[in-house]
Amino acid sequence: MTTTPDHAAAATPSATDLLRGRGLRVTAARTAALDALEANPHADTDTLVRVVRERLGTVSVQAVYDVLRVLTEHGLVHRIEPAGHPARYERRVGDNHHHVVCRGCGAVADVDCAVGHAPCLVPSATHGFRIETAEVTYWGLCPRCAG
Amino acid sequence: MTTTPDHAAAATPSATDLLRGRGLRVTAARTAALDALEANPHADTDTLVRVVRERLGTVSVQAVYDVLRVLTEHGLVHRIEPAGHPARYERRVGDNHHHVVCRGCGAVADVDCAVGHAPCLVPSATHGFRIETAEVTYWGLCPRCAG
DNA sequence: CACATGATCTGGAATGATTCCAGTGATGGA
DNA sequence: TCCATCACTGGAATCATTCCAGATCATGTG
């Protein structure tokens, strides 16, 4: 039987399918940004502009900002903003994972929650706040910066 | 016996004593900023400039930025930077506590680590990073914004 | 208590990330 | 295929923050 590659591999849907699945228009900038992010996890806007331009030739900075905003709003990418660093984006969404940021070079790596089912997400006193999410950022030194 | 108030109440040292204790020069801007922060926990720079000016009359914005940088570097205040908000400062330092930020109005409140001795600070895989600190930010709605 | 020294404050300009805006161009349903 | 709408372009503006050079002040010494 001749199943299309798209149907055969449902594990990693194409950028086009992801966009269609959310009812978003499929544009060159969007698919290129999603692919660039697949290849460069935790990339910042500047990096993504460069990578997208390598593929598409010419893309405005604002287009990339707009694409990332739309993708973030629709849950296709996740935005993190380490203190003192420009925003970074990743395609790993939906699961509760955290990040470690290098104080030296700003490198970011994923960190899964240590203990079973996210006990750190249950604070003691909430001061009447209705808590929705918890975000953990580890700070340290990456292997290279640690020497 | 005639002990001075300073010696009697070691619980909350004056701004002057805090500065002297770190070998820092005692200036009007610094004591005013420390006092302003005592009265306004989690205040941002803008707010602190206003409060300091109410007491001192005229202070440059840059002086406040400089004061806050020096105080932060010497561990007298703690700086937090919630994503999408300007930096905020607090005098509660040295203990491992976290923050909840309101998605509506940006209000910040302190949150003590829920479970015993900070298990959330022990990540599972560190990717070779040498982890120094962990920072937890809860996001939700404050009582007012939750309606 | 006056002085010298070096840190601190002032005012102004610059930076970097991000957003806003008006106009042109592309996408996808009719 | 045609059109309404949404997306992209280019330029300017915003916001928080930092940089710079010069004037001022805090502090240890004589």
Automatic annotation (TrEMBL), chains A, B:
Please cite one Gene Ontology biological process associated with this protein. Answer: regulation of secondary metabolite biosynthetic process
Compartments where located? Cytoplasm
Q: Which domain of life is it from?
A: Bacteria
What does the cofactor field's note say? Answer: Binds 1 zinc ion per subunit.
Q: Name one GO cellular component term.
A: cytoplasm
Pfam families xref list: FUR
Q: Which cofactor does it need?
A: Zn(2+)
Annotated membrane-spanning segments are none
Q: Does the keyword Endoplasmic reticulum apply?
A: no
Q: Which Gene3D superfamilies match?
A: 3.30.1490.190, Winged helix-like DNA-binding domain superfamily/Winged helix DNA-binding domain
Under the GO molecular function aspect, what terms does this record hold?
Answer: DNA-binding transcription factor activity; transcription cis-regulatory region binding; zinc ion binding
Q: Is DNA-binding there in the keyword field?
A: yes
**Keyword terms of this UniProt record:** Cytoplasm, DNA-binding, Iron, Metal-binding, Repressor, Transcription, Transcription regulation, Zinc
The main location class comes to cytoplasm
- The residues that hold Zn(2+) are C102, C105, C142, C145
- Give the family from UniProt: Belongs to the Fur family.
Q: What is this protein called?
A: Fur family ferric uptake transcriptional regulator
